[in-house]
Amino acid sequence: MNNSIILPCGNRAFWDFDSDMGFRCNACFAMHGSIGQPKQCQDEVEKWKNLEALGGQGWDYRSGGQKSKVKVYENKFG
């Protein structure tokens, strides 16, 4: 498992092995998607979700940018 993602705010979040519940931001230390996440980060995530809902390309947490139009399937076994 890749243990980090790049958030829309530009920071990197790492898997929180202690809680084993999600990704924790290395800048604000909030769990990604939690109520403790700063408002500007929540707004940035919401912007990308809305763009995708309107038919645009959403945020790709692995590459740290806009999703590609081509679907790439990840090998779950290796």
What do you see in this structure?
With 78 residues, the chain is of the alpha+beta class. It has one domain (4-66). Helices cover 19% and strands 18% of the residues. It has one helix and five strands; from the N terminus they run E-E-E-H-E-E. It has one helix at residues 39-53, and strands spanning 4-6, 12-15, 23-25, 59-60, 65-66. The strands form two sheets. The chain has a three-stranded antiparallel β-sheet, with no helix packed on it. A two-stranded antiparallel sheet has the order 4-5. It is globular, with a radius of gyration of 13 Å. The termini are close together. The mean pLDDT is 89.
Supply the helix-strand structural class: alpha+beta
H/E series, N to C?
A: EEEHEE
Query: How would you state the average pLDDT, rounded?
Result: 89
Beta-strand portion reads: 15-25%
Globally, the shape reads globular
The number of distinct structural domains comes to 1
The count of DSSP E runs of length 2 or more, i.e. the number of strands, is 5
Low-confidence parts = none
Radius of gyration: 13 Å
Key words describing this protein structure:
78 residues, alpha+beta, 3-stranded antiparallel β-sheet, 5 strands, globular
Layout of helices and strands:
Layout: E1 4-6, E2 12-15, E3 23-25, H1 39-53, E4 59-60, E5 65-66
